[in-house]
Design a protein that fits this description.
single chain; five-stranded parallel sheet; about 160 residues
Length: about 160
């Protein structure tokens, strides 16, 4: 940034947090933080089952939760949470309560969550079974996190 006189450009890392436990990644996160950058970590689920369905990764949900917790213990983070439907069926109320519980557990472990961003798909995804949630549902999801004491924005 300095070489191109871009010091005023804000740095943000958007990540699924699957590799935050690796030493080289931690060093990179430290550099980002020292440069005034911010980590935006994805957390799209409250349970292992929904996590695997939504994210389709080989990493365990526990690994992602542990990584977000560890990162948020070192730096303030933004949590990005995309909720959508599969064949018209989105996450049920129990899934959302579990998601809020995961956020609370991160906070209770000393994690610093600056903001939670709740959103849905904005364009036609490659998977035709995936569809957007209605704004009223997104607002309800956000309200659950707000009731737990979090700052939440809905997009």
């Amino acid at each position: 940034r300095a070489a191109h006189k871009l010091e005023r450009v804000r740095l943000s890392l958007l990540s699924n947090a699957t590799l935050f436990h690796r030493e080289g990644v931690i060093e990179g996160l430290d550099l980002l933080h020292d440069a005034g950058g911010e980590i935006w970590a994805k957390l799209d689920a409250g349970t292992e089952g929904w996590f695997q369905r939504v994210d389709g990764t080989t990493f365990s949900f526990k690994r992602v939760l542990d990584n977000i917790t560890a990162a948020s213990q070192r730096y303030r983070v933004v949590i990005q949470s995309m909720f959508h439907a599969f064949d018209g069926v989105g996450p049920d109320d129990a899934e959302i309560r579990a998601w809020v519980g995961r956020l609370a557990a991160i906070r209770d472990a000393g994690g610093q969550i600056r903001e939670i961003q709740v959103y849905t798909v904005a364009r036609r995804p490659a998977d035709p079974s995936v569809g957007a949630l209605e704004r009223v549902r997104l607002d309800w999801i956000a309200a659950q996190a707000r009731e737990a004491g979090f700052e939440v924005s809905v997009y």
